Amino acid sequence: MKSTLAASLLLGATLLPTLQGCLPLVAAGATQATLAAVDRRPIGTQTEDESIEWKASLEISELGGKQSHLNFTSYNQKVLITGEAPSEELKAEVERRTTTIPNVKGVYNELAIAPATSLAMRSNDSYITTKVKARLVDSGTVSAADVKVVTEAGVVYLLGLVTQREADAAIQVARTTTDVKKVVTLFEIISDAQAKALEVKVEAQPEKPADVTGG
Fold it and tell me: In CATH, what class is 2-38+118-200?
């Protein structure tokens, strides 16, 4: 069921820009709410992750100027730093400053000491991420909603709260996706019982009626 829902959400996200008037705002809000509902993280944690990413982007991303390219992805309050930095000193400083952001519980510093990638390469990374997500949906072995996919210079990073079976399935999908150079797994492994409990919690959430005014 969650696999079908994830596929629908991917399709909805693709179609949203083509809609007109008030509908995109209503649909976007509904899509975000549904994505939040199927996420295994509590709503409060999802909000905190978004806040951490925003603060890191605002306060740290410009470090090193045009010579650096910094990306921050927070999942379950653990921050993945990807991109390129011109020196080990800057790499260490970015990590240090990230750890000082309130509520950050851990940091994965995957910055490469290299020149900043081109816009063309970053566009290709986005395409790889899309392909991996689509193949996760098609596989039917793991819910795409439970796996966060980040791609940097052809290297795919996988995050999420997943069982070992789900982790193995997601890794296999990523490894066999065209143009993927390497797969780095940063999953938090949970038991089947924990996963089942989280599924029940997600399905038990009541739906809130949409409040639509005007257009």
Answer: alpha beta
Q: Tokens 């940097």, residue?
A: 152
| Domain positions in the chain | 2-38+118-200, 43-113
CA–CA dist 10, 32 (Å, integer): 11
- Please tell me what DSSP assigns to residue 204: T
- Indicate the helix (H) or strand (E) that contains 88: helix 88-99
Paired strand residues for 188: 161
- The tally of CA atoms less than 13 A away on the side-chain side of residue 137 is 14
- Beta-carbon contacts of 176 under 8 Å, excluding residues fewer than 6 positions away, are none
The token pair at 151 is: 């791609």
Instruction: Kindly report, residue by residue over 151-185, the tens digit of the pLDDT.
Output: 999 999 999 999 999 999 999 999 999 999 999 99
Tokens 């940063």 belong to 186
Cα separation, 52 vs 61, in Å, equals 12
Query: In what order do the strands lie in the sheet containing 155-159?
Result: 148-152, 155-159, 182-185
CATH of domain 43-113: 3.30.1340.30
Q: What is the residue type of 69?
A: H
pTM listed for this prediction: 0.80
Taking the C-alpha atoms of residue 173 and residue 48, their distance in angstroms, rounded to an integer, is: 29
Strand partners, 189: 162
